Amino acid sequence: MRFSVVLVIASLSLAGCRTAERRPAVVEASPEPPSASTPEPPADDTLPVKQADEEVVVAAWSEPRTLPPGGGQAQILVRAQKRGGSPFAGVEVRLRASTGSLYSGGKVLVTDGRGMTRDRLTAHKTAQITLNAGGTRYRFDVPVLPASAE
Predict the structure, then answer these.
(1) Neighbour count for residue 11 (Cβ, 10 Å)
(2) Is the overall model pTM greater than 0.70, yes or no?
(3) Are 60 and 129 in contact (CB under 8 A)?
(4) DSSP per-residue letters across the chain
(5) Least C-beta-crowded within 10 Å: which of 42, 62, 110, 117?
(6) How far apart are CA 40 and CA 106, in angstroms?
(7) pLDDT tens, 32-59?
(8) Which of 64, 83, 78 shows the shortest CA–CA distance to 116?
(9) Mean pLDDT within 139-145
(10) Predicted local distance difference test score (pLDDT) of residue 29
(11) Are 109 and 85 in contact (CB under 8 A)?
(12) Extents of the domains making up the chain
């Protein structure tokens, strides 16, 4: 009887490991640091959105995490949550890429009932994504791998 219990526990542990491997790598976006050389942009800068009613906790990432040599396309995913982890629906999000193009063209996106929204980046060089989610700006990179020297 002990042997079967150990097998069940071991199989549950392994199942959890396999599930964890399938999850996408999530890079928590960090607030954009103020630049010492330039003043803070005015409130009506190039990424205006409606201010959220309460604090928004944001995670943003790309799938795939890196683009192949020469570039390609990546989904840009944004998850908005309330403090405590519940999804934050209806948050306005606007994105900008330092290079390449976004499918949204910089228009306002809105999070769904799961607190999610997405865009598509097409880039040939490493792009820095800047986003404004509910009034707070965040940044992260989508790197393009260098061409291999053969």
Answers:
(1) 10
(2) no
(3) yes
(4) -HHHHHHHHHHHHHHHHHHHHHSPP----EEPPPPSSSPPPPTTSSS--PPPSS--EEEEEEESSSBPTT-EEEEEEEEEE-TTS-B-TT-EEEEEESSSEETTTT--EE--TTSEEEEEEEESS-EEEEEEETTEEEEEEE-BPPPP--
(5) 42
(6) 20
(7) 443 333 334 444 457 788 888 888 999 9
(8) 78
(9) 96
(10) 46
(11) no
(12) 26-31+45-142
Peptide bond just before 48 cis, omega within 30 deg: no
Percentage of residues in the chain having pLDDT higher than 90: 57
Q: What is the average pLDDT value for the chain, to the nearest integer?
A: 76
State the CATH class of domain 26-31+45-142.
Answer: mainly beta
Structure token pair of residue 74: 């990546």
Q: Which of 80, 55, 77, 81 is nearest to 65 (CA)?
A: 77
What the block records as the tokens of 69 is 């040599």
